[in-house]
Structure formats: structure tokens, C-alpha cells
Amino acid sequence: MARLADYFVVVGYDLDNRVEGEGQGRILQRFPEKDWEDSPFPQGIELFCQPSGWQLVPERQPASFFVAVLTDINSERHYCACFTFWEGLDSPQLKKVDAGDADEADEEPAVVQHSKLFAPKSLVVVSRLDYTEAFRNCLGLIYTVHVDGLSTPLETVIGNLLTCVIPVAGGSQPGPEEREDSLRTITLGAGDRQVIQTPINDALPVSGSSVAQLFRQLGIVNVLYLFCAALTEHKILFLSSSYQRLTDACRGLLAIMFPLKYSFTYVPILPGKLLEVLSTPTPFIIGVNSFFRSETQELLDVIIADLDGGTVTIPECVHISLLPEPLLQQTQTALSMVLDPELEFSDQAFPPQSMNPSALKIQDKEIRAVFLWLFARLFQGYRWCLHIIRIHPEPVIRFHKAAFLGQRSLTEDDFLMKVLDGMAFAGFVSERGPPYRATDLFDDLVANHVERIRQEEACPHKVMNHVKELAEQLFKNENPYPAVAMHKVQRPSETSQSTDQSRTPFPVLDDVAVQLFIDHAVAKLKSSPPVVKAELKSMVPSGPPLGDIVDRNGNVMANSARRLEVVRNCITYIFDNKMLEAKKLMPAVLRALKGRTARVCLTQELNQHVLQNRAVLDDQQFDYIVRMMNCTLQDCSHMDEHGIAATLLPLVTAFCRKLGAGITQFAYSCVQEHMVWTTMQFWEAMFYSDVQNHIKALYMETDDGNQQDQQDGSGNIREISALELAAEQNRLWPTLSKEMQMERVQKEESTVFSQAIHYANRMSYLLLPLDTSKNRLLRSSGLGDVESVSNSYVTNSIAGSMAESYDTESGFEDAESSDVANSVVRFINRFVDKVCNESGVTNEHLKALHTMIPDIVQMHIETLDAVHRESKRLPPIQKPKLLRPTLLPGEELVMDGMRVHLIPDGRDEATGQMGGPPLLPAEGAIFLTTYRLIFKGTPSDALVGEQIVTRSFPIASLTKEKRISVTLTMDQFVQEGLQLRSCTFQLMKIAFDEEVASDLAESFRKHLHKLRFPQHVQGTFAFTVGQSGKLVLEPKTKDKNQSLKTLSKNLVKNAKRTISRQYVGRKKEVPATWENRSNFQSELDEDEISVSEEVDQSALTLSSTIRSSDRQTMSNVVERACCRDYQRLGLGTLSNSLTRSKNEPFRISTANRMYTVCRSYPGLLIIPQNIPDSTIHRICRCYRQNRFPVVCWRHSRTKAVLLRSAGLHAKGVVSFFKSPNAPTAVPSQADSTSLEQEKYLQAIISSMPSYSESTGRNTLSGFTSTHMNTSESSDKLRQPKIGDLMKQVLGNKEDVPGTFSRGALGQKAKVISLSQPKVSGKARNSPRGKWGSIRGSGRLSAYNPDIGTRLAGKESPQPNGGPNDPLFLRQQKAYLYIIGDKAQLKGGKQDSFQQWEVIPIEVCDVRQVKNSFKKLMKACVPSSQTTEPNMSFLRLLEDSEWMTLLHRVLQVSVLVVELLDTGSSVMVSLEDGWDVTTQVVSLVQLLSDPYYRTFDGFRLLVEKEWLSFGHRFSHRGAQTLGSQSSGFTPVFLQFLDCVHQIHLQFPMEFEFSQYYLKFLAYHYMSNRFRTFLLDSDYDRIELGVLYEEKSDRRNPQVCKSVWDYIDRLNKKAPVFYNYMYSPEDEEVLRPYTFISNLKVWDFYLEETLSDGPPYDWELRSRQESLAEETAEKADTGAPKSQRHIVWPCYDNLSKVMPDAITKLLQDLQNLEAELGQTSEKWKDTWDKIKTTQRTETKLESKPSFSSSLLMSSNLSHQRRSQGVCLQDSRVGSSIKLGLDCEASATSTPVAGRPSTSTLYSQFQSTESENRSFEGILYKRGALLKPWKPRWFVLDKTKHELRYYDSRQDKDCKGVIELSDVESVTVGTPTMGAPKNVEEKAFFDLKTSKRMYNLCAQESSNAQLWMDSIQSSLSDA
After folding, report:
1. What is the per-residue DSSP string for 1336-1398?
2. pLDDT single digits (tens) 1151-1177
3. How far is CA 780 from the centre of its chain?
4. What is the arithmetic mean of pLDDT over 427-451?
5. I need a surface site. Which of 361, 443, 1451, 1660 has the fewest CB within 10 A?
6. Across 1004-1142, where does the E strand assignment appear?
7. Do 1399 and 1343 contact (CB within 8 A), yes or no?
8. CA–CA dist 1291, 1300 (Å, integer)
9. Are strands 235-240 and 302-306 parallel, antiparallel or unpaired?
10. Residue 993 and residue 898: Cα distance in Å, rounded?
């Protein structure tokens, strides 16, 4: 029973005492005046009566009521019900107010005028019970008695109120006799009666309708945010203008948190005076009146819920963890079905009739039921994670958080982690943990309904039914008798409320009278017998164990039975001492141990091998067991949520090995390096679970044996859980005698104490390192303030090598062991203090423990020292021996092999995850040579241990090197490592072995860097090769070929001499270009300044400047400058200037022979015939880097020319900005140059035959005739095409430049806007300046569709319809299109008659190419595996935009091809003219001219466009220290990729194979050859390397030029040849360029781990010869399998794939060798076969499939890839057709291959050659036919067995293909066999089709035949 009211207080306005101008309240009277013992009077009530402050008001306000909640020091809540009304003040009181405070006049200006003021007075009931309505009624009654002047005295009413006693809670289910327990009718003696219903179970909160109200005010999502915030301990502030609503909202929030109780600051109504409470650091739930809203604005970490506005504001710095999915979603659904049931049916055509939500009170319970259901799901199975560590005298219970999270697989869940760590949950455990107590609705739910909840959770309607049932129980608990109505309580009459005057102040009550009532009631209570309400205690049911809960997130892989089988087998092998088997399984086991079930399985298996707590192993077994334990622990988190470390703990102290006499090493000394051992929570959980087991055992022994097991309902016997046991003990406790009780308490206490000693030992085992002399402290700060100590895993492998290498790094040489000991002692002490205090160990015992611990630690240190000493003596484990790499001729080792591990990168193939064996990680060594970085080793996986893994790349291709730290799965060392990335698409992640000293690794890095970036290009491998590794800068040897040297010297000298002053002058304005920065240049620059004489350049012809002694070498220049190509194209010959025929439109100019005009151009250039050299000197200044337009190719049919130049200087267009009308008196220099430029362009145009035919006059007839004279039909076909292309390249009119537009086929194309003004008629006739024509309408940005339409051959609208309008002429294509950079378009000159026209495009910047390539490398060779969807290969490839760049280059090239093909010349004038320009120009020539698709042509193209025209290879390739900062920009690689794309689309048009392109791509980056070094011919001459390539015969092994190397290789084997080469005459290729048509080049993706990149050919042949030698040695006559297993990324696929042509060529060679003929070169053979095939196909009407496919050139050439399944013989075909090598490959006949003999039909050879063995054999005929003698011929050449009627017979009767023969066996005679023949003369020949029975004349003969057939089978 409890008092309804503890105190009654009257609080009034304090007239005497005002602080700082604010009114105060004061307690006028309180009853009882003496505090109750059980509940002291709460302080500060007067503040809470008027939370907004005490104020006087001029008008009476209505009475108000609200309940405030105060919390006392014992965290008991007191409910203060405040009833406030207003009383008038009389005049003497008023005067007192005025006198007291004149400044109140500010606030209340009415003070002076008003005769009357009103002061508040509050009646307050203080109670520990929360009956809001009862309090409202009681206080209302007292007020009514006072106002209406009822007869009952107030003292009686108040006395009755204070003595009223009601029950705290009703019975379980009230029966009639208990009815008055839960229903209390009270009367205060003023004619009133009211019924108070007490809840059946007071553990459940009473909420009225406050929860439903809260949801109505804020909405579902907001309340869920507040709910999660409250549970995760955030600060919550409610705002409302109503006090009662604040209280209700707070009460509602607390109600939905049940069964958790809120234990922080809880103030539903906070007075304004106490607002600073809001800045407290602790969490709170507080309500504040909206009046103070402004003062809550600056709170940074408080969540503010505005009840009136319905908003919840969460500050930025606050992160609320929400419920885990799918719980959150399901909760929201359930809540919306309660609050808004119509939502579900709102879309239905016929919604149900009655769908209104329940009444507010019912709805309130339904919402609470949803939250109960939610908590039952969150906490299901929590009782299985409780550890009971003491039963008597009081149960002590701890919750095992890690196990709970682990079994629910919610370890990552933020919300649940925070809830379990919170105070509320700690309270929940201490309140609900005890196993024997009264239970409530939540206990029942979590024990008995978990299964139901789990089955229904996905079905909202079933959930709703459950929620409704729960709501009913909650409602019944709160309203046990809903039928009993409220009885009458009087309200004040209307009249008394309205009249002011009659009201008297509230009287002073007679305290004696009230006190009498109270004393009387107390006396009565004492005399009456105490009401003992028997509390129903019972055993709390635990519910289903957590283990049954399905691990939803657990992946199937982790639980596969196969993996567990592997783990079990491995352990069995280890203990059966089958070490080899175990070793093979080990890698698979270590992979399996990533899964949880496998780890559990491991601990169970190991447990079975422990006998009497001990298992002694030998060294190798011990090593394996430790390794498995480490792997298991490695993936355990520090929480050990799956209890793996806990189950391993007893095992690490059980497994051991003998090291010597009496010295044993236990496994714990090798598994210390894990976080879990330094985590205090882990040790506590372990300790508690062990204590629980021991205490359980204690009581199991004391109880009788018959009580041990209980039977389940199902009849299964199950073990009693510790909690059940404890419940039983708690039930029996009161019945025991005092002695028994004491005995049990002592037993439990000593159990805990002994466990504490045991754990002190265990902890010292795992925390003290094996080598305590080294002060290497533990990584984590797990040991508190001092980081704890640990060692590496010292198994026998490491003990030896590691101990010495770890010198005393710490710097403490002596006495550090004491530090280690101290920190461990401190850690164990902290642990012991905590657990002993919690589990009630006596102080004496605790002191004993503290003295024991240092001794335990010291003792353990001593035993460890002995173990450490012995472990050092163990022999180190054998490591695989280091394999030596094969080196190229001239390549030398810089650093010898260092033992490293090659770690897998982000590519899956090698790790065995895509099938196939795991080749990585591998163990081996890394070698640094002058040319390459090579890793060679063997896989760590024992199953593939005999394979060799090689990965290498040229040092010059290294793009990034970074340090990494690597953990190897095998030994758990964190090791230093390097990640090296190469632009040949190789990635090496290496971890240095522990035997490699760190300074060695550092020197490796330095050497690598030095080799990667030499000081000068002469330090690269191509120059230093064969110079014994010294980086020689200038070789001083006397050169045999003196004339070449002199030529180069003279050229350079003359170049210096002939630089004119003008050139020097210009130097000042031109910013120093890259060429002027190299160290060689600096001397030159000094020279330039001092040049004084000026030579007339026009007078210098090539022949006149060079002395006669040097003229003989002039041919080299001519050859080098690609004159052959110019002559082939008819662009001019190098004859004397006088005799040169004037009708040739172009001439070869020698103006640049000294490289004075343009240093990056070749010496000889093609320019128009009539342009003198002097003009060139002037023109070149307008262009960047002086790269003025020169002709590089001419179309053989249309005679259109292709020109290349750099973009224009902005300086060249100064006059462009001048107004066209401004009169220019004197032409400026800029004007004259622009004139020169115009002349130059005009000269080019007039050199075109189409132009000269139109007589140079721009008349209409002229235009039409030009249009007609080119082949009409082709033009018509092509016109629309150009228009489309143009539109693609230029984008549409609407497109904004710089955005992406979706072009045809949805490809991404950078918009290219075209700028060309529309010139109005008026402007055209007005006088213009030089540039007027281009400036007609002022701005250049307008896109002019006319160009596109004209190109498309469509009519453009005429502005005024006049035929003589020049627009009419514009339908003619321009003679010259200038592909210009959009950015520098202003420089172009547009002439009025449209003879040339600028096509502006946006080119990709070099930086773009560089960044794109970086991303491409990361996409193709990721450094680590990732599962993020936005990191997939295709996504990264798209992000890199590499394909977009290819598309752009190809698109522009195809456009240029089309323009040239229709007869317009094109000038490509982009950036500096050496990157994109080169790409486009080269591709155009490749597409247009079949010559460039041959070996010679392609070489010439690259030499001409890339090398001579100065693509900056050294600079773009970052080949030296100087260009290091610019980074690697693979412009040439991009070009090769474009060629590869074209090759894929036209496989029959190229003489070279894809391998040729890959070979060039690799060596372009490798620096093995000098070809792709240096930036221009000038640089090459200066270094004297331009002409020496051919003349170096000293070292024939070393090729300096990649072309020589290719030629040399091509003679030996057809590796570069494309067998499908079958060109069509004059075919112009037009590839598709959309991104969807482009493929990723396999060069970027393929990898061969067997012998590294396949582009250094000598290495391959060497490796093969070595392999042959070893095979010969090893051959002991055992049968060798002909099968070859091909592994992805290990084998070279192209090498092992069958390739008919290579096979045939090889067979030919074998045959030639057999016949003793000289072997022909493969090319001759090939050409011979080709010609015979051609003639045959012409003769035959039906050509045979294979031959025509291979050879015929008159195939109808399809544009797309042919369906020809012939492998282009790439690297691997390893044919050796040179004389010096014999055939290495052998092959077996494969069944089902098409007949090989047909391919030999072209060999007309004599009979004898073709007959290897012949004679008469009897052959059995078909069914029912007799045996007949036949003349059999065995033909090894054609690989067949033929038979004839007789020897003379020429017509073959039948052929047995040897490739079909399966076996030759001894036969038996059958019916009709020839008589008188021995039985042994019969033999059978079995083919895939039938069986041949044969018979020789005698047995010896038969044997001969069988042997011959057998031998030819094996030869094949």
C-alpha cells in the first residue's frame, strides 16, 4: 500500500522579497510539516509552480493545472501536481509592491493606473505515484470548496487527501476478492467520490494516451528518431507552449522505451531560471516552454522536438544510429498500420467500410505493443548470454555482449552496440537478469513468442494481429475494470468563476487540525495487521537459445561442408604425421579459416587431440598447429564475438613441444600477436563464463544425482542451464539454516578466488613475450597507460633468424624486462580488482592476490628465458632456393636476388579464385638488372609448388613506387613491402622477407630510382647496353665510321653558325621551349647570342653548304628524311634547284637542313614549288615551335595533300583584333606575316590539280567543272557520309561547347563547335582590312551550319535568292580544310571565296591523356581486390575515358580520310604539332594508303611522322631526371591502340599481326632500343646516334634499332606475320569509331606468369633450350604425357593454342630436315605456297575450303572481321625455321582433324621419297568378303597408310589416315584367313572408324610392320 499524496503545499507570491526585479514564490504552508522518513520533501517546488517566473498580472487568468516531475538524490521521481489560480491584491499590498520595486513599471505600465493586480497562488500535491486525473480532481475539489464556500472545512478535505492509502499494484488477474485491491474508491469528505484503478502489474508503465498523442504531434519518423536518440544517449529537448503536453510527451517517450528504463536527467518541465541545465554534458530528456525558444538556439548538440510545430531538428554534429534494417522498415510499417489504417486501402476501388483508427487510448496501447514487439526482436535470446557469477547471498549477473552480437551477426551494427553499452541496458540486466523473480509481459514475450515473431515478421497483417493481442494485455493492465465509471467530483460554479469582487483570498489553514488527521491515520496503520501481499516469484524462462537463430547475413560459402572436411583432414594428417599431405592442404585450410564455422570446427577438432590438458607435438606438427591457430585468431576482432579465442585459450596452454631436457615450449608463446589478448572485456567475459561453469558444477555436486537433468516437453533429456540452477537455489535459500547459508557463500567465494588465480596465470602466459629482454611493447594501448608487450610469433622457423635481427630498437639496453613485467602486472591487477569487486571476493583474498601476481609474472619470465634460449637453437625451416633469371645479351645484374614474397594484386586470375591453382602469393627473389626488374619464384601453395612464377618489367616503364606493409597469411608478420607499377601493365606487390635487412631494401629503392631516371638519355639501357653496367656519358673510343661523325658534327656546327640575328632577337619574346632546357642546349644558347655574321639563307642549298668530303654521307640524310616516301608519293625529288622541273607542284626544300628553321622538324621538307625558302623563315614564326605547315602525304587518285603544322601563335593574329575599318597607314610586321601566310596557303591550294584545272578563277563554271572532273559516282556516294561525319565531329547546333553530346549510336563525343561567321551582304561589300573576311559579323562563336550542309552536298538557303550571291558558290567544297584547335581559331584566315575553311575541334590535352592512362592502368591492373560496385573493371574503364579519347582521335582521322578522298586537301594544325597532330596524320595515312599497312610501310610511317617530325619520346616517356616531373604520357601507345582497333575491324588488310603492335608498344616503353629515345632528329644527330644504327657491327648480338631487331626476327620465324593478310587494291579503310565498336586491347590485360612478358624474344628461346636440356636429363624412359594443362594467366595462350599454319610450316621444316634438304626461309616457303594456291583456285571451279580461306586474294573482302578461326601466330608459336635450330615441338595426331593430306597436294615428289615402308599384306574384306593380298605403302610424309592392288598399280584403292589410328595390336586368325601362315603373323589396326584385320606372310614381317606404324604414330 502507498500514500496517494505525500505532501500538500500552498505556494504564493512573495511580496516582501524580489530578486533583480523578478518576483519570487514562497511556500505559505505545507502539510505535514515534518518530512516522512521514506520520502523527504523535495526542494525548489516554488520554482516549478510557475516555470516561466512569478509575475503579477492586471487581469485574472483562468485556473491552470499541470504535473511537474522532480527527481531526488536517490533518483526517485516525485510527481508535483500544481493547481494555480489568481487572487487580487488589496491596496496595502500593492503599495508594498510599488515601494519595493519602482522599475517594475517598465514591464507593467499598468501598475500605476490599475487599482487591482492579480498574483498567482498554487496548490501542490507531491506524490510518488503518477495519477494525473485523480490529482486534477482532488485539487479542483479543494479549490471548489474554497471558491464556492461549501460547508465542508478545507482542513478535513486536505486531511482526508493526505491520509488516503491505495494499493501499488493489483493482483495477477483481479478476482472478486481482489477487486478492492485494484479498485480504490476514495472520498475527501466533500460529497465527492472517485475510483482509482491501479495497474495489475506496476512494472509496466502507465501511459494513458500520451504515446498516441506524441505520434500525432510529431509523426512516425520523427518519434523513431527521438526513440533511437534516447536509447543511444543523446540529449533531447521538447518545446511546447503547454506544460501538460510537455509532461505527456516525456511520459510517452519513456513508455515506448520499456523494458529499458531511462536513467539520465529527466525534467519534463524545466523552469526558466534553470535553463543553464541545458548545457550539461550528460544526456537528458527535458521539456521547456516555447517562450524560451530563442535561448535554446545556440545549443549545438541537442536534438530539439517542437511539439506544437511537429518538427524534430537534429544538429549537424549529431549522428543518430537508427535501428538495423529490416527492423526499421518493419517497425515503420507496423506503426503506420496502427496510426493510419486507411493508407493501405487508399488506392482500392472498393475500400472497406469502417477503417477508422482505434480510440486514442487503445491506439496508445497498440503503438506501445509495436515497440514491445520490436524489443522482443532486438533482445531475443539475451538470457543465453547472461553469466551468473554468484548465486548467494545475492545473484550477481553479467551480460556477455560480444557473444550476443556475434550470434546475432550484428557486430557491425552501430545502434545495437550503443544500446548494449548504455546505462539503460545495464539497468535492464541488473533488473531482469536474476533468474528467480516476478515476471511480466516482456519476459513472456521474449521467452515464448520468439518463434511466432520470427515466422510472422515478414507478413504485416500477422504482425498486426500479434500487436493487437499485446495491446489488449497492456490496456487491461492499465484499466482492469474499464466498466467502472468515475464518480462525482464537484466543479466550481460558473458564477463564482465570473465574479471577481466576491472572491476572498485562500485562507490560512489550521495546521493542527490537518496534523491530527495525519497522526490518527498513522496510529491506525500501526495498530492494524500489516497487509502482506505475497509477491509471485517464479523461475524466469530463457526462451529458445540464440544458436537456432538463422544467420541471415552469413554467406553459404562459409559453411560449406567441403571446407570443414578439408580442415578436419588436415588436422588428422598432422597428428598422423603425414606431413606432405598436410602441407598440400595447408593453403586451402588457411583460406577456409576465413569462415566462422571452419574456425569453430578447428577448435573442436584440436580439442579431441588433447589428453589430460596436454598434447606434446614434434617440431613440424607444432609449427602447423601454431600456424592454423594464428590464422584463426587473425580474423577475430578484439571483441571475439564468436568465442573463437575463448575456445582456443585452453588449447594454447595445452599444445607444446619439447625443446630440451625439461624445457617445454607451449603454443601460447607463438600466438601472442593478436589484439584480443590485450582486451580487458575479453578476459572478463572468459573469466565470468568459467566462474559460471564452476559454480554450476559446485551445485550439481551438492544436489542429488536424480535432479541433474530435466526432461523437455518432447521427452529429450537436456542439461539444466546455470540460470535454471540458480533459480532453484534462490527458491530454496530462505528454507536453509544459517550455517548452510554461510557455507554456500564461502564455497562460492573461494571458487571465484581460485579462478582469479588461474586467470592471473593465463594472462601472464599470453601477455609476456617469449623474449622478455626486448622491450617491444604491445601495439594496442590494451595494457592501459603502458602499451602492453608481445613478441612476434616465434615458431622454429623464425626463432633462429629473428632473434638476432631485432636489435634493441627501444634504446633500453638494461633492465627493460622489469618494464615488461610491470606493465603486465598492472594490467592483471586492474583485471583482478574489477572482477573480484563485482563478484564479491573478500578483501583478505584480494590482498593475497595482489601479492601473488608479481611472483606469478616473475616466475613465468624465468621459465620463458629458458624456452627462448632453447628455441634459438632450433634449425630454421628450409626456404625454397632462389632461382636465377635468364638475362638478355648485354643485360647485367645491378643487385643480386633479395628474398621477397610476391603478393596477389587486384586481379583474380592468379589467386585461384576464378578456378585453377593459386599461383600467388609466391615466394622467390627480386633481381634488379640494368634493363629490367625481375621476380622469379615458386607459389606458396604446395599443390603448384613445382611451377615457376616470373613477373618482370623494364625499369624504364616504372610509373609509381610506394611503400606498403603486408601481412602474409602464412606467418602473420607485418612486413615492409613495395608496390611497383609499370606502364607495361604489370604490378609487383612485394614483401621483403625477414632476412632482408631494411637498409638493403632502401638501397634497392635508390638503385631503382637511379636507373629509372638517369641524368641524361645516354644513361638509359639502350645506350649503356654491353658497357658493363657503368653509366658512361661520352664513349671516347675511336669510331671506324669517321665520316658519319663528321657529318653530325658539321651539321651541328653549321646550325650554330647559320642562326641569324633575327632568330636571336626572337629568342627574347618566345618563352623558352622544352628544347632549350636540356643540358646540351645551354652551351648552344651561349653560342647563339654571340653569332655575328649573317648568311643569306636562300643562297644555301644542300649541296653548297656541305664540304665535298661529307657529300658521300648525304645519302644518309636523304634516306633518313624519308625521301624514298616522298619520291614514292611523287612529291618531289632531290635534284639541283636549277634543273628542277617547274611543273611539279611541290619541291623538297633544304631550308631546314641545319635545323635553323625548326629544330623539331626533319632536315628536308616538302613545300609548294613557288614558295622561296626565305618566306619559310618568316612564316614559321606564326606557328608554335616554328612548326609551319608542310606536306606529308599526297592522295594518289585525287592528288589532295595532307599537311601538318602546329597551332598558330596568338601573336600572329595581333591585327585580327584591330577594327576592319581602321585605316592602316603602314603594314605592320604582323600584317606582312599574315600576308605571307595567306600566300602560302594559296600556293598549296593552287598546287592541287583540281584547282589549276578550274583555271584559278572562281567562276561558277570553274567550280562545277572541278566538281565534275573527279569521279562523279564516287563523290555522290561519299558526300552524305562526310556530312554525317562532320556532324558527328562537330556536334549539333544546339550543343554547348564543352559538354558531352549524345552522338549517333549514343557514343560520347566531345562537342566540337564550328566557328565561322555568317557574312551579311552589307558587310561583304563594305571596305575591309586584311582580316575582314573572317571578321564579317563581329563574333566568331556562331555555329555556321553552311559548312556542314555544303559538306553534305545539300543546298543551303539563299538569303535573297539571287543566283550571283556568293553563297551559291559555297556549295562547292573548300579546297583546303584546316583542322584547327578551337582555342586558337582566331588565327585562321577565312577567304571570301571559301577556298579554305577551318574546322574547329576540341583536342584532348596531353594532361588528359596522362590522367586517363593512369586511370586505365588502375582499371586493368588494380592494386587490391574490391567488391564495391562502383569499383568494377568496366566502371573504372569508363571513368578513365581512355576509350573516349581513342574514339575522338579515330573520329577526326576518319573525317580527314573522307575529305582527302573527295579531293579536298587537309591541314592538321593542332596543339604543338607533335602529339595529336602526329596521331591524326599517321592514322589518316594508314587508313588511306595500303602501303603503310605493310611491314616496310608502317616502319616508314613511324620513322617519318613520329621520329623525324619530332614527337617528344624522351619527354613524354619521362625517360630522364629532367622530364621526371612531367610524368608518363603515352601518346604513341594511344596511336598503336587506334591501329589495333582498325586491325580488329580489318584483319585481312594488314601484313603485320597484332603481336607486332604489342611488341612495338612494349618496347616503346622499355628503352631497350634507341629508336624511341630523344625528341627529334636534331637531338639524335647531336648525340651522333642518327646514322650509327646501321653501321654498328661490333656487337652483332645487340640491336640498337627496334626495326633491325624485327627484321632479324622476322627472318627466323613468322611471329609478326599476319596469315590472313589478303589486301584489296587501293582500299581506303573507314573503321567504325563509336565506343561500342572499340575493344579493350588485350595488351593491357594479358599476363604470362610462366616466363614473364613475351616481348623479349631471346629470353624465350633461351628458356626453351634450357627446358629441353633438363627434360633430356630427366628422361628415364618413363612414358611422357602429351597432354598440356593450360592455366589462365600462367601460360601464354597464343603459344599453346593450335595454329594450323605454324604447324604446317613446322612439319615442312621437319620433312626438309628428314630428307636432308637445306631448310628454306619461312617467307619463301609461304610465298611459294601462296602462289600455287592462287593458280589452283583459278583453275578449280570449286576451290577447297581451307586453301582458299588461307591464301586466295580474290575473296570478297568484307568490311568487318572475318569469321576465320586462324590464330595469328603470336609469341608462342615458337617456330624455329633457321638452320641453326632443330624442331622442338612435337605433337600427336588428334582424332577428328580434317585430312592433312589435302594440304600436301602441291608437293609433286617422286614415289620413293614418299614411301617409308612397303610390302604385301593380306587384308580382310568387309562383311562376308574374303581376305585378299594388297600392296601396302606406309607414307610418313603424308601421314597415311595406302593400299594398291599390286606394286605396279598407280591408283590407290584406299587410304588409312594415321591420325585416325588408335592402336596396333597382335591379332588372331579368323574365318577364311590364308592357310599355312603362323598365328603370330596376324595383327589388327584399330582406327576411330573401324577395325582392320591384317596378316603378313610371316611373323617377323608382321612385327616389322607393327613397329613401323607405331614409330610413325609417335613421330607425328
Report:
1. TTS-S-SB-HHHHHHHTTPPPPPSS--TTSHHHHTTSPPSEEEEEEGGGGGG----TT-SEEE
2. 888 888 999 998 888 888 888 888 888
3. 28
4. 85
5. 361
6. none
7. no
8. 9
9. parallel
10. 8
Reading the block at residue 562, the C-alpha cell is 567441403
Radius of gyration of the chain (CA): 50
| Residue that the C-alpha cell 655575328 belongs to | 1092
- For the packed helices 644-652 and 738-767, what is the interaxial angle rounded to 10 degrees? 80
Q: What is the chain's length?
A: 1916
Segment holding 1833, helix H or strand E: strand 1827-1835
Q: Cβ distance 170 to 200 under 8 Å?
A: yes
Q: Decide the pairing of beta strands 284-289 and 265-267.
A: parallel
Residue 1812 burial (C-beta neighbours within 10 Å; 0-12, 13-18, 19+): middle
Beta-carbon-side half-sphere exposure of residue 890 (alpha carbons within 13 Å): 20
Tell me how crowded residue 399 is: count the other CB atoms within 10 A of its CB.
20
CB neighbour class for 1732 (10 Å; exposed up to 12, middle 13-18, buried from 19): middle
Residue environment code for 329-358, b if the CB has 16+ CB neighbours within 10 A, otherwise e? ebbebbbebbbebeebeeeeeeeeeeeeeb
> How many Å from the N-terminal Cα to the C-terminal Cα in the chain?
108
- Tell me the pLDDT tens digit for each residue of 792-828: 333 333 333 333 333 333 333 334 455 788 889 999 9
Q: Which residue has the cell 522498415?
A: 329
**Dihedral sign for Cα atoms in the order 742, 745, 748, 750:** negative
DSSP per residue over 930-964, as a string? SSEEEEEEEESSGGGTTS-EEEEEEGGGEEEEEEE
Residue labelled with grid coordinates 497492456? 474
Partners of 663 in the β-ladder: 660
Asked whether the beta carbons of 987 and 905 are under 8 A apart, the reply is: yes
Helices and strands, counts by H and E, the chain: 66, 46
Question: What are the φ/ψ torsions at residue 1289 (nearest 5 degrees)?
Answer: -70, -35
**Residue 1561 identity:** A
In angstroms, the CA 1373 to CA 1396 distance is: 9
Q: Which amino acid belongs to residue 724?
A: E
- Reading across the β-sheet that carries 986-992, which strands appear in turn? 949-954, 932-939, 922-929, 893-903, 986-992, 974-982, 958-967
Q: DSSP secondary structure string, 1224-1263? A: -SS--HHHHHHHHHHHHHHHHHHTSHHHHHTTT---HHHH
3 state DSSP class of 232:
coil
Cβ-proximal residues to 394 (8 Å cutoff; 6+ apart), any chain: none
Q: Has residue 1009 got a pLDDT over 50?
A: yes
For residue 1099, pLDDT over 50 is answered with: no
- At 1691, list the grid cell: 601460360
* Cα 408 to Cα 403: distance, rounded to the nearest angstrom: 8
C-alpha cell at 591: 583460406
Contact 373, 334 (CB under 8 A): yes
1334 compared with 970, residue with greater pLDDT: 970
Could you give the CA distance from residue 813 to residue 824 in angstroms, rounded to a whole number? 19
Residue 568 CA from chain centroid, whole number: 35
Strand partners, 19: 22
8 A C-beta contact, residue 782 and residue 675: yes
Count Cβ neighbours within 10 Å for each residue of 1219-1255 and write b for 16 or more, e otherwise: ebeeeeeeeeebbebbebbeebbbbbbbbbebbeebe
What gap in Å lies between CA 1794 and CA 1374, rounded to an integer?
Answer: 57
Grid cell digits, residue 1045: 661523325
HSE (CB half, 13 Å, CA atoms) of 748? 26
- pLDDT for 1384-1424, tens place per residue? 665 445 554 557 888 888 878 889 999 999 999 999 999 88
Report which of residues 1485 and 1111 the model is more confident about: 1485
